[in-house]
Amino acid sequence: MTEKQQQILSSAQKLFALEGVAAVSTARIAKEAGVSEALIFRHFGNKQQLAEAVVKAGLAAKSSMINGALHSPDPVTLVRAVLSIPVGVAEASDQFLPWVAHLRAVRESGMGISSDSFVRERLVWAVSEIGHGRPEAVAYTIERVLDQAVELGFAGEEDEANNLCLGLRELLINE
Length: 175
Fold this sequence. Notes:
With 175 residues, this protein is mostly helical.
């Protein structure tokens, strides 16, 4: 990706995360990125394709953040680490911005929520090892709670985000 493409993508992520896809025009993204609107169309085709690029980059950022927590050989430690990710979103909001932009773009465009297969695999393994029935459904729930908690933390609702994660931890590993 060229420097200009990265500027456009970063600006789109920022604006989509803060305001949503529908509320932001390509002209506004261009202004934020310091490029012409025509350059957006040349590099990304249209706003929908730019939103798709935001979704792809956001999923990669999300997977990268979660990946570090997935290498524990102990399933309880793994679940605890994954559900601790949203803690401190407000202090590191720039780091979580691609993840939040991804979520908003997916929701507003009607794209299906996708998951990194390694993330899902490790969560299913951990939940199964802990002894819960229907580990695929529980792993899906963990991912959706993470998404919701990250969005809440990003919006300044840290207590609500922490309560979601703590509640799920209590249900999963009784802590």
